[in-house]
Amino acid sequence: MPKDRPDEEIDMTPEDMAPRIVRYGELVPCRTAFIDAHTPGSNQKENFTIIGGGVSEAADQHVHIQIPHGFNIGAAGQPPYCRNSLHSHRTAEVFFLLKGRWRFFWGRHGDAGHVILEEGDIFNIPTGIFRGFENIGTDYGMIMAILGGDDAGGGVVWAPQVIEDAKDHGLVLGDNGKLYDTKKGQALPDGVKPMPVLSDAELDAFPEPSAAEVIPRHVARYLDIAAMATPRPTKVIGASGRLPDKPGFEVDLITRASATEKMHRHDRPSVLMPVFGHWRIDWDGGSTILAPGDTMSVPENLDHSAMPSMTGEAALYHVVGTDDPAGPTWTGGRSEPA
After folding, report:
1. Range of 86's domain?
2. Which InterPro entries does the record cross-reference, listed alphabetically (predicted)?
3. If you ran DSSP here, which 8-state letter would residue 300 be given?
4. How many domains in the chain?
5. Using an 8 Å Cβ cutoff, are 247 and 328 in contact?
6. Which pTM value belongs to this model?
7. In whole angstroms, how far apart are CA 12 and each of 235, 240, 304?
8. What is the mean pLDDT of residues 203-218?
């Protein structure tokens, strides 16, 4: 929670802060981050690791900010009709849409339910279910991701058909969680075996919730939550949030109506991620302007404020860690900490 005047305080110069600001135009993509990177239909996607190691399976994934926050921040960029294959996470995976129109689907074969989301919408996908997503817009799209825990739960669990399909296109996932490209002459190292596919018994443990079960508790539409963000930010994800959950972090939406010039601070690092408009961030020691797609990590105990710097629509998501376990578990209609 923010603190107006804690005992400890710091200040930072713009040069000190620069490594903690990642500009949208400077994001470094990885095009072989996951096992489906060569599979037709998924082979044009780009993955970005902004804060923390994420869940990439590629050894050459670039990490922009390695400071532990208690959660990871990443992004996925995809041209129209490119999809991310069915997989599951052990900790939270929260997306908000930065650019485009996207369809999220879930279930063992991706047919248990789906939802179509627009820019600014946010989806707290339940853990323990297979999920995938595709850009159904007409231009390159970008979604930003928040993953629970500093280690993001130890990786991704793939639906069996994804692993099998990948073999036909040269990518093999080792049981060490690393990818090997046979088309480049790579082979599994000694002592490393192919990642086994899940058995029928293991697959039976993955729930198949309907859209009616998932959407009301796990999806927040931007227009709805923006309307609630006055005169104070909307708690989107948190114990008392619009999407009540305790995944190890909280997410607030701040709009022009709820922004304030009053300085505040947190006792742990926090992250600012504009989705609409340009924002002026002031802190003890400097200031900067953030645009949609930029990500800023604010150090703990640093006084700062965020205000729109231009007229027009303005909204940003604010993320801060909590002491809760890093991930909800699907329990049939609701989420609880793991």
Report:
1. 23-186+202-219
2. RmlC-like_jellyroll, RmlC_Cupin_sf
3. T
4. 2
5. yes
6. 0.91
7. 28, 33, 11
8. 95
- The rounded radius of gyration (Å) of the Cα atoms in the chain is 20
User: Would you give the DSSP letter of residue 101?
Assistant: -
Counted residue by residue, the chain has a size of 338
Residue 21: strand, helix, or coil? strand
* Matching residue, tokens 């050894």: 59
**Pairing verdict, β 179-181 and 171-173:** antiparallel
Please check whether residues 169 and 227 belong to one and the same domain: no
Complete DSSP assignment for 27-57: ---BSSSSTTTTSTTTTT-EEEEEES-TT--
Q: Among 60-64, 138-142, 196-200, 323-327, which is the least confidently predicted range?
A: 323-327
Rounded CA-CA distance 333/322 in Å is 23
CA distances to 33, 75, 79, 84, 335 from 38, rounded to whole Å, are 10, 19, 15, 12, 34
Q: Are residues 28 and 132 in the same domain?
A: yes
Assess contact for 321 and 248: CB atoms under 8 A.
yes
- Three-state SS at 248: coil
Strand order across the beta sheet in which 21-22 lies: 21-22, 295-298, 270-276, 315-321, 249-255, 234-238, 243-244
